[in-house]
Structures are given as structure tokens and as C-alpha cells.
């Protein structure tokens, strides 16, 4: 299980990825899909 610092770091990384993607909806969809799959694997 990940500790709080790792979760925070991953969250910040995702925010930066989304900001960098700007209007690239394909890239944003991939980021969201990656996070969704990651959360499903944790359960």
C-alpha cells in the first residue's frame, strides 16, 4: 500500500500532465484512463 507522500506525489504528477496536455483531449483521456485502471487494481 502506498504511503501518503507517494499518493500526493502521484496526484501532483497527474495535475502537471493535465496542464501540459492543455487542449490535447486524447492525452487527457489517456491520463484519466491510466488513473482509473490504477484505482481498480488497488481494490
Report on this model:
This protein is mainly α. It has one domain (4-42). The protein has two helices and no strands. Helix 1 (4-21) runs antiparallel to helix 2. The longest helix is centred in the first third of the chain and has 18 residues, at 4-21. 0% of the residues are buried.
Quick structural gist:
It is built from two helices and no strands. The protein has 43 residues and is mainly alpha-helical.
**Spans where pLDDT lies below 50 across 5 or more residues:** none
Largest sheet descriptor? none
Q: Which structural class best describes the helix and strand composition?
A: mainly alpha
SSE order? HH
**How many strand segments?**
0
**What is the alpha-carbon Rg in Å?**
11 Å
Average of the residue pLDDT scores: 80
Estimate the helix proportion, in percent.
Answer: over 70%
Provide the number of structural domains.
Answer: 1
Distance between the termini: 11 Å
Our count of helices gives: 2
**C-alpha geometry:** flat
**Strand share of the residues?**
under 5%
Amino acid at each position: 500500500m502506498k504511503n501518503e507522500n507517494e499518493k500526493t506525489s502521484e496526484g501532483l504528477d497527474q495535475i502537471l500532465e493535465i496542464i501540459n496536455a492543455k487542449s490535447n483531449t486524447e492525452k487527457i483521456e489517456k491520463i484519466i484512463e491510466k488513473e482509473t485502471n490504477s484505482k481498480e487494481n488497488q481494490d
